Amino acid sequence: MLVNMNDILLPAKEGGYGVGFFNAVNVEMARAVIETAEELGAPVMVGTAEILLPAMELEHVAEYLIPMAQKASVPVCVHYDHGLTFERCMEALKLGFTSIMYDCSTEDYETNVSKVKEMVRICHGMGVTVEGELGHVGDNEGSGKLENPSDFYTDPDMALDFVKRTGVDSLAVAVGNAHGDYKFPPKLDFERIGTISEKTSLPLVLHGGSGLSDDDFRVAVKRGICKVNIFTDIDKAGKAGVEAGIAAGEKTMMGLIPYEIAAMKKVVAEKIRLFGSENRA
Questions:
Q1: Are strands 204-206 and 225-230 parallel, antiparallel or unpaired?
Q2: I need a surface site. Which of 16, 39, 203, 241 has the fewest CB within 10 A?
Q3: Are 74 and 20 in contact (CB under 8 A)?
Q4: In the predicted model, is pLDDT for residue 108 greater than 50?
Q5: Ramachandran angles phi, psi of 153, nearest 5°
């Protein structure tokens, strides 16, 4: 069933478990995520991000994701992640996404507050939930790499002010996490996660989940993380699945699809069980 983020994350916060958000830039990824969630009786979030739109345009993502979510036997939130522009967020809203992340974290604080507050006003009027980001989660590679990541960690007191003034439904935090493949083992600030969770009472979001250790996830969820973003892990699994199909002698794209989906489903299942959302639907 198609639901919004609160329908999934508020029970997760109350129950002390996490829920995976998986980017799905093609139908095979979407099938891997939703079919696995159904098999494990788990609520799940699925969608895309603005930076991923070159792989599959927003309109086309909506064409396959929203009907699949509507038909699913478990709660599925279709989420537009890291919306960087107001126009693209409005497009996702009009296409039927049930949750929007408006990422203004690189703006100055007051601009971030003002823009996100306006997004909340619009989205809440349509029953759509909003995720904001405070601090800034950089990349392990490319232009988003931060020289001193700790300078951009989320401040707990500022987080409380941000939540009160914007009315966001969830908050993405910067606590030592980063997007993409980790070059070195990350060191998450678990104490900071716990403090922010206590002060804001909101479901917190951990971006850059691929590559973290199982213990990192367990402790982060225990401290207040309710939504964990995963893309790199399933993206790489899909590629490995295709390679396995080729090695097995498959000669067509159709023949490779089952290998691709099976490899991604394995990763999705591992994450669902690790986050504790199995049988929570």
A1: parallel
A2: 16
A3: no
A4: yes
A5: -65, 150
The DSSP output letter for 153 is P
Separation of alpha carbons 86 and 280, rounded Å: 34
- Mean pLDDT, range 91-97, rounded to an integer: 98
Report which of 48, 44, 18 is spatially closest to residue 33, judged by C-alpha positions: 44
Q: Rounded CA gap, 211 and 159, in Å? A: 26
Facing residues of 79 across strands?
47, 99
Q: Which of 126, 120, 109, 108 is nearest to 83 (CA)?
A: 120
Q: What are phi and psi of 131, to 5 degrees?
A: -110, 135
Task: Specify the residue for token string 């799940």.
Answer: 44
Q: What's the token pair of residue 157?
A: 């007191």
pLDDT of residue 150: 58
E-assigned strand segments in the chain: 2-3, 19-23, 44-49, 76-83, 99-102, 129-134, 170-173, 204-206, 225-230
Predicted model pTM: 0.91
- Residues 14 and 32: their CA atoms lie apart, in Å, by 27
pLDDT in tens, 208-235: 866 688 999 999 999 999 999 999 999 9
Share of the chain above pLDDT 90, in %: 85
pLDDT per residue over 41-90, tens digit each? Answer: 999 999 999 999 999 999 999 999 999 999 999 999 999 999 999 999 99
Asked whether the CA dihedral 218, 221, 225, 231 is positive or negative, the reply is: positive
Q: Phi and psi dihedrals of 78, rounded to 5?
A: -95, 110
Closest among 77, 103, 71 to 10, alpha carbons compared: 77
| Alpha-carbon distance values, 32 to 43, 101, 166, 261, 265 (Å) | 14, 23, 34, 5, 5
